[in-house]
Amino acid sequence: MKRLEKMLLLINTLRYLKAKQIYYRAYYTLRKKICKMAGVIPSLAVKAEGKPPNLTEGISPPASFRNGTFTFLNLSRNFENGIDWNFPDYGKLWTYNLTYFDFLMQEGLDRESGLALMDDFINKMPKIRDGLEPFPISLRGINWIKFISRHGIRSEKIDASLRAQYAILEKNLEYHLLGNHLLENGFSLLFGGCYFDDKTLLRKANKILSEQLEEQILEDGAHFELSPMYHQIMLYRILDCINLLTHNDCDRENLLPLLRNKASLMLGWLQNITFSDGSVPLMNDSAEGIAPESEALFAYARRLGVQPRCLPLGDSGYRTLKNRRYEAVVDVGRIGPDYIPGHAHADTFSFELHAGGKPLVVDTGTSTYETGGRRTLERGTAAHNTVEVNRCDQSEVWGGFRVARRAGVHGLKEENGCIEAWHDGYLKKFGARHKRAFIGQKERFTVVDTVEGPSGLRCVARLHLHPDTAVHLEGGTVMCGESVIRFKGGSPTLASYEYAPAFNSRREGIVIEVPFEKYLKTEIIP
């Protein structure tokens, strides 16, 4: 990338940030340098006494630790000579997962094995790096306290280490990132405050959660980063906090009504966009096997007495068109919050469609967070079921989690089973406006694309088909198992792509590519 282009991308990225993010990023960077020069090292043991909270049955995560082998993100590692909590070979997200300690709550992990893992981590803390960042501290704190509760553990060593970790978290709350990171900090501070009966932790938790839940949960119930996966994760945390406050006397009056209200809204939104097979769209950064599945969340909520409140889909930008033949989830909204679009993709007007209860048109998915060609490809417009103009992305996704100029949606209209809007992602670049209409009819699902602009634009619409779909091209018609896809205004061709339903998991599938000039009509007949 040329230096000027990189500079423009950076400028168009930074201009969306909040002043608080810039301030805290500068403050934390400067403080770290000063502490390093002064030789200041945070204490890794603070004398304190915790009390195991009362908790009812939650959600058990998939087993990620068996016979000495850790498996995260579909990558496994056995540490024969002792656990390396800094293990870097599989990328930072894998190392993060190793230090989250989710495995403490998996079915079948006994008290002694869990204590041994915690003890090993505590003994090696002076040399641990990524695991002492605020995000993994937040998740680990919740998991340790839940494990302590399950087994009624009393340990001075664990309490001293856990309180020291919360002291580190308190001083490094992720105001430079905001979004789901700051919410995770708040959830964990609530658990830590209840466990240690610490009014300071509870006060900070209350402030963060009260402010951030109001901002981050949209009016229709969606989490504002617009990733179904992160929505499930945030809902899971809220349900855990409801569990904590319902069964323990700690800050119940202030937060519990808010948590129940937001959980009810989030359950309703999730119910709206969950397909009949229990899966959710893999839009934006979403992958299978990371968050609890929708049905597990619904069951957990029922045990806590929280019922879904289903409102019409609105400011999240997601919409559904469903009947007995097909289920479609379409995206006619913004890519995400302006100041934290790190989990956004350049996928405006993309959609997923299930026919006969099975996935037919799918999102490419997310297989990695590591910066590089694959990450760039999966975030790009060509990896989604929408229209690409002149081989460019609608929104300028770059780096691992950055977005510069981004597409804005205009003229949204919804009536009689038709959803229509246009976006300006190509307006400044090429003077082009992409307009798309989704039409849900009893016998078919129709997509109408119109690109208004100068002549000579190279427009390509794509439909990524699930790898299990049998595909056959007959003239201008594509036979997809029992479904038929027809096009008016362009001639389809078939190409291969890699479907990535989970991290580090890819399968070859077929993508239909349809070049066109100004107008294209796509009919999917399930």
Description:
The protein has helices at residues 3-14, 19-38, 92-100, 111-123, 134-151, 156-171, 179-196, 199-216, 228-246, 252-273, 294-303, 373-379, 427-430, and strands at residues 65-66, 69-72, 75-78, 318-322, 326-331, 351-355, 358-361, 387-389, 397-398, 402-403, 409-415, 418-423, 433-440, 445-452, 459-464, 471-474, 477-480, 483-488, 493-502, 505-516, 519-525. The chain is α+β, with helices and mostly antiparallel strands and 526 residues long. 47% of the residues are buried. Helix 7 (179-196) runs antiparallel to helix 8, helix 7 packs parallel to helix 9 (228-246) and helix 9 (228-246) runs parallel beside helix 11 (294-303).
Q: Can you lay out the helices and strands and say which pair or pack?
A:
Layout: H1 3-14, H2 19-38, E1 65-66, E2 69-72, E3 75-78, H3 92-100, H4 111-123, H5 134-151, H6 156-171, H7 179-196, H8 199-216, H9 228-246, H10 252-273, H11 294-303, E4 318-322, E5 326-331, E6 351-355, E7 358-361, H12 373-379, E8 387-389, E9 397-398, E10 402-403, E11 409-415, E12 418-423, H13 427-430, E13 433-440, E14 445-452, E15 459-464, E16 471-474, E17 477-480, E18 483-488, E19 493-502, E20 505-516, E21 519-525
Antiparallel strand pairs: 1-2, 2-3, 4-5, 5-6, 6-7, 8-15, 9-10, 11-12, 12-13, 13-14, 14-21, 15-20, 16-17, 17-18, 18-21, 19-20
Helix pairs in contact: 3-5, 5-6, 5-7, 6-7, 7-8, 7-9, 8-10, 9-10, 9-11, 10-11
